[in-house]
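Q: What would this chain look like folded?
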Amino acid sequence: MYKRQLLGRVAARRPRDGYVISNPFGMAVLDVALMHALAQVATRTGAGRLLDLS
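A: My prediction, written as C-alpha cells:
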C-alpha cells in the first residue's frame, strides 16, 4: 500500500492528527532500536503490514 512512498517515488500524506516519529539528528542506533521495538509490538499484537520492498 505505501511501497511507492517508502521508496520515495511519491510524496507521503501528512496526517491531520496523530504522530509522526522523526529523528533529525542522524542517530542510527536510536533509529534501529526504535524500529526494533515497534516491530516487536506490531508482531505481538498483530498490527501493521509486512511490505515487500524488493
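The helical segments are 3-6, 28-45.
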